[in-house]
Structures are given as structure tokens and as C-alpha cells.
């Protein structure tokens, strides 16, 4: 069983790869647990201390020949996380289209060339939703993205669906909530602050919050996101049927609640490091995303429920061994 | 005001172009009625007797340079009808992806290069719907195509939406019902029979119906489709808001009702020319499309209601000056 993780040099991709390494096995096309013989990470860059048990391929997702060579014709499992993030795709339309849409399509086409269709997890996003939305997003709400990132993601969901229907892959698209708290550095994701306002103050660094206290997000901590991606993979094909995309459970958390919870856990000195300074572009994008979901289908399919603000912050503190 | 009709050599595109010629004017970007100075038809082939007032460009939609040259940098109105039909896109996956997805994207990119963003009508289809569906499709039902044609159409709808949001075009996607009765020859559309079972017998020719009498379709006669495309164009941008796609009104008609109505209008000798001979592939595709819609939004936006089986058949008889 060969596994490919695109975006494997990124925070979530690398975490996922380590979880798979620890797990050691995944179901094959016949849903029989099979030992993992190789995990390949594909990304534009890697952290310095990558575990030697991974095979790393450095390159761009738009390099079709490299993607095909990396897949190697005999990959069984693909976790496709590589992506230009929301803020990046909005700032550079062509780059977003090239990487998020063409790159994904190139990967799907490479999968299609294999004799054995791989099982593929595509990481989509709550950013597919936008425009006039109901108060609660249930499984029947139609995506209407108000950002190019979301538009590219939803196109890819439909491609994953059609390639699956044709039998070229066994694909499943998972709409990730905003992941918080991510360790490391801020990135171009419009939601980057949702980690930054917790991470930076806990590290003694000032953090700017570009949206107001009332802004709400649909959040999921990293370990739960990893679990969900693996669960999406392990479900048998029949569980997905003709609907190859799912909204993941998470929790509705207001920015103010995040800040107040951090204050309660880590004290005023930490929480006072957060300064609200509205960035209209980021606020527009972030508040176009829905913050409240009813994820009946996911819960029925065995995906775990989300976690509250306190658990989200405490998970980060424990993970990073921070003393508060 | 320069107008481009892709698929302008096809039945619907050419009809639309003639209607625009007769109309003589369209609203400009500021919704002010403006005389049409030129109508360009773009297609892979043209009928022999094209009106000399049209400028015809013969070529493939995937030829980016030609599409851009045809647009010419100063086109105000684009009606994008060119497409590989449903049966064709299902039989040749690569061809469908290339023409329906890449071709449309090339056109959108060419539009984007213009100094003045054109207003663009994209012809989508009820084929975007499929899978487990409610009995009645209202404006809230999420596309879940069970054919590559529908998947390509829905991807393009999202691209049209995002290019519009970015201000690159003022786009509107119109989901056409099955158009019946089309004159001319059968084509590779899985729904081709919906015209053939009326057209061929009325012309004294035997017709094979590849689906059972109970199969139902959401139908619209050609003149109503043309009207709807022009109406979609004439609506001000504000009427579309953030939702750039619409389900068109039509009428639910069972195949048996079509046959019985033809029998009543044209007699047994004509209707007896129809023979039902199930084609499982066509039946699967056609019955995956919904046949019953509740098109509140379209009716509210002033699109005309559909017509019943008798009106549909009589419209064809009158249009073709057939004696029954």
C-alpha cells in the first residue's frame, strides 16, 4: 500500500503523514486493512527535520509530469491537501486557478492513468459557502462561494465526484472547517488570525485580529481534522454513494469567545497582546463563510463531533507544551 | 454593441442570432438599449445558407488564440452555447473536458482581457442535477450530476459566478430544460429522442424511442428557450446579485404523453412510426435528470412559464409548415 500526501510539507499534511506512519495500515480497494509500505510527501517546500521514513518529492502541483512520476502508477491512497490558500487565491487569481483547479485536475488525470484506481481524499473547505445563507448550513445547502478559493474548491469537488462516478478514482471530498490552533507562522489564509490570536499571545508575541469580536467561525482543532481525513478514507465506497462530498463537524466560536477563553486560561497579560484592527478585505472574506452547521450526514457516517473554544485552546497548549 | 454567439452554427445558436438580428438592440453595461452593430457566430460548422449579415468564424472553442481574436477585445455581449452534448461528453470524457470545461474557461479568460467586461450568458442544463433527488427540484436543490456533461456544466457555472464576482464579466448561467422539438437531424445528446420521436414521424420517418413511456422530461420548446436566453441577458446585473445561475421554467412531460399527444394531433399512421426500444445507457442518463421543477426565482425574475405537450408539438408543426 503506497500513500501520497500532497501538501505533505505543510502543517496539516505533515501531521497527517505522521499519523499514517503511526497507524501503519489503511484499507485497500476491497476495504481490507493493508500495511503501508511507503508514504510519499509532495510539496513545494519541507520542514528541515522531516522523518527519514518519508519519501519527499519537492515540486509544484502544476508540474504534470512530476505529479505523474510521483504517483508512479501504483499509488493506492492519495490525500490531496496541496493548495494556494484563500487569501492567496483571492490576491492572485491566476495562481489560484493554476494550482487549485489545474493542479488538482492534473493529479486526478494522473490517478486515472493508473491500472488500479486509487482512493483519494480531497480537502475542500467551508469557503465553498457564501452569499445569502440560512442561519444554519445543513447538508442540503448549495455552495455559492464568494471567493476564488471557494470557487476552485467546489469545481474540484465536482471533478472528484465525476472521476469517481467514472471509476477513475474512489474519491471523497471533505469540507474542512477553519483549523485552529495551527502552530508555526501566519500564512496568507484569510483565516490565519483564527490561529494567530491564540498562538502568538501564548508565545508572548502581539497579535492583530483583523475581524471584530462578533465574527464567528466554524472551527476544528488539528488533531480532529487529521482524524476526520483518515475516517473519510477508511469509510467504504458504498457509504459515500453518489454524493462524494461532506461538511465536517466543528464548533461555532465567536472571535470574542476565543479571546475571553484565552484570557481565562492564560491570564490578562497574554490576552492583552491581542489587538483588534479590522482589515476590510479579510473581514469580508471571513464573514462570507458560514459559521454554523448541522452536520447530520457526517455524524451518521461516524465523523467525530467538534470541540469547544476551551478544548481547542487547551489542545494547542498541551501539544506545544506551553506553560500557562 | 458587438455580439458573439458561440455555437452560432448550431440549431439553437443560429435561431438566437436571428432573433437578435430582428431585435436589433440589447442593453449595454449600463442597461441602456444600444443598437447591435455586429453579430459574430463562432462554431465548428455552419449551415449552407447563413444570413450574410452575420460574421462567421469557423473554429474550435479550444483554440484560445482564435477565441480571443474573435472576441476582438471589444465584444459587449457573449452568448455561450457551444458545447459537446451530453451523450458525446459521456462517451468521450477527454473531449468533453476539453471543450466544455477548458473551452469555456478559455472564453472567460479572453473576456477578462477586455478593457470593458462583457455581459455573458452561459447555457447550462438540467443535467447538472442527479443522484438522490427530491420529487420536485426547487431553487435550493444542489447539483449532483451523474454524467460528465452535467459535471462540466456545473463547474462552468461556478467559474461564471466567480469571474462575475471579480468583475471580469457580468455573467449569468441559465439551466436549459431539454429542448423539444428541435428540427434537423438527431445528435449525440442523450435527450435527442425527445425531439426525434415527434420530428421523425411527422416527416414520415420511423423513430426509435430509447426510453420507456414512463420516462419524464423537463421540456421547453425552442422559441421559449430563445426568449429565456435574451431575457436572462436583458435583466440588470442587480437582479442576479450573488447568485448567477437559474433553473428555467419548463413543463414535465412523460414520453407516453408525447406519443399520445402526437397520435391525437397527427393520427395513428404518424404515431405508429415510433417504436420503443430501450437503450440502457441513454435511459440511465436521461432518467438521472430531474423532470419536475418549481422555478419560483425564474418566474419572479420575469422568465415565461413552460408549455404543455400539445403546444410543444403544435409549435413545431407550425414552425416547419407541416400538414397534419
List the helices and strands and how they pair.
2 copies of one chain form a homodimer.
Chain A: E1 2-6, H1 11-23, E2 25-27, E3 33-35, E4 38-43, E5 54-58, H2 64-71, E6 77-80, H3 86-91, H4 93-112, E7 119-125, H5 148-165, E8 170-176, E9 178-179, H6 193-202, E10 207-209, E11 216-220, H7 222-234, H8 237-240, E12 245-247, E13 251-254, H9 255-266, H10 268-271, E14 274-276, H11 280-287, H12 296-300, H13 309-319
Parallel strand pairs in A: 1-4, 1-6, 4-5, 6-7, 7-8, 8-12, 9-11, 10-14
Antiparallel strand pairs in A: 2-3, 11-13
Describe this structure in words.
- 2 copies of one chain form a homodimer.
- By secondary structure, the first copy, chain A, is of the alpha/beta class.
- The first copy, chain A, has a domain of 202 residues: NAD(P)-binding Rossmann-like Domain (Rossmann fold, 3-Layer(aba) Sandwich), CATH 3.40.50.720.
- Chain A is 41% helix and 19% strand.
- In chain A, the strands form 4 sheets. A 7-stranded parallel β-sheet of chain A has the order 5-4-1-6-7-8-12, with helices on both faces.
- In chain A, a hairpin with a 5-residue loop joins β2 and β3.
- In chain A, α1 crosses α7, α4 runs parallel beside α5 and α6 runs parallel beside α9.
- The radius of gyration of chain A is 19 Å and the shape is globular.
- The termini of chain A are far apart.
- The relative contact order of chain A is 0.13.
- Chains A and B meet through α5 of A and α5 of B.
According to CATH, what is the topology of the domain at 2-176 and 221-247 in chain A?
Answer: Rossmann fold
Rg for CA atoms of chain A = 19 Å
Structural class of chain A: alpha/beta
Oligomeric nature of the chains: homodimer
The average pLDDT value of chain A, as a whole number, equals 96
CATH class category label of the domain at 2-176 and 221-247 in chain A: Alpha Beta
In the CATH hierarchy, the architecture of the domain at 2-176 and 221-247 in chain A is 3-Layer(aba) Sandwich
Proportion of helical residues of chain A: 40-55%
The CATH homologous superfamily of the domain at 2-176 and 221-247 in chain A corresponds to NAD(P)-binding Rossmann-like Domain
Topology of chain A as a string of helices (H) and strands (E): EHEEEEHEHHEHEEHEEHHEEHHEHHH
Total count of helical runs of at least 4 residues of chain A: 13
Q: Note poorly predicted spans of chain A.
A: none
Number of strands of chain A: 14
Range of strand content of chain A:
15-25%
| Major protein interface | A-B, 24 and 24 residues
Name the strands of the widest sheet of chain A in spatial order: 5-4-1-6-7-8-12
The biggest beta sheet of chain A is recorded as: 7 strands, parallel
Give the CA-CA distance, first to last residue of chain A.
43 Å
Global geometry of chain A: globular
